[in-house]
Every structure is written in C-alpha cells, then in structure tokens.
Design goal:
Shape: elongated
Mean pLDDT: 88
Low-confidence stretches: none
CATH superfamily: VSR Endonuclease
CATH class: Alpha Beta
Number of domains: 1
Number of strands: 4
Oligomer: single chain
Largest sheet: 4 strands, mixed
CATH topology: Endonuclease, Chain A
Helix content: 40-55%
CATH architecture: 3-Layer(aba) Sandwich
Structural class: alpha+beta
Order of helices and strands: HHEEEHEH
Distance between the termini: 59 Å
Strand content: 5-15%
Number of helices: 4
Bound molecules: zinc ion
C-alpha cells in the first residue's frame, strides 16, 4: 500500500495533529499489522486508516470518479484495493482491533471539525466500552466466588 498511499499525506497529518492535541497517543504505520494502519492507538485497541477516496474507492463519494480512459483497468484496480481493505480490516478485527476509516472527503474544511470531533468521541466510547466490559466480568467473577463460598 505504501507505494500508493504515500507517507505523511495532508489528510493523515490533519488527523494526527488533532488527536495529538487532544492527548491521544499513537504509533505510525505499524509494520506488523495487516494493512499497515496509518495510526495505531494501543490503549484504545484501535487502528485508524486515513484513506484517499479515489484509491480506496469510497462508495457514493463525489471524489471517487473513474478516469474517462482505461475505465476497465481502473475499475478492476480500485475494486481490488477495496476488497483488500475489507480483508485487512476483517483480519484486524479478528485480532481484537477496532478499525476506523477516515475518508479524505471527510477532512475537507467544511466538515473537518465535525469529523475529528466524532473520531475523538468514538475513541472515548471504545475505551469506555472496553473497560466497562472488564468491570462487568470482574463483578460476575465476584458473584461466582460468593456462590462458591456459600456452597462450601
Ligand atoms: Zn470520499
């Protein structure tokens, strides 16, 4: 992907700058994870892809317009990219990672702030949910221990 995606693209920098300013910490382009996600937030068990609308074939997006020549070539190529994205995200999910895709068009000036705020919101929600789950499991374990004690 790196040949296509390029490093430090402007949309990616926007996301990084915003997250950093809000206190989120991340690693970049983790080489060992499927798809080499742009950002990896271990604390949130979350990876973020910042995707160009054309190369990744953003469905229904006005920035995803096939060139007028070599249409079949481009169609096949973009369809291949899209399929690979889905496969990679499936793999990541099976490894316990949350996957978030931020599209380039969602970072255009008129919608940028909204997109970034909702990204921060989603991350906080993920964190709370993960920890709420742990808490509930703990409570259940305590209940089981009590039951065990009583039946002794
Ligand atoms: Zn788009």
């Amino acid at each position: 992907m790196s040949a296509i995606k390029g490093k430090n693209t402007k949309p990616e920098l926007l996301v990084r700058k915003f997250l950093f300013s809000r206190g989120f910490r991340y690693r970049l382009n983790h080489p060992r994870l499927p798809g080499h996600p742009d950002l990896v937030l271990r604390k949130y068990r979350t990876v973020i892809f910042v995707n160009g609308c054309f190369w990744h074939g953003h469905k229904g997006c006005r920035f995803y317009v096939l060139p007028k020549t070599h249409v079949e070539f481009w169609k096949t190529k973009i369809e291949h990219n899209r399929k690979r994205d889905v496969d990679e995200q499936r793999q990541l999910a099976s490894m316990g990672w949350h996957c978030i895709t931020v599209w380039e068009c969602q970072l255009k000036p008129n919608v940028r702030q909204q997109t970034l705020e909702s990204l921060a919101h989603t991350l906080n929600l993920i964190y709370l949910q993960d920890h709420a789950t742990h808490y509930i499991i703990k409570e259940e374990e305590e209940e089981q221990m009590k039951v065990a004690e009583e039946s002794d």
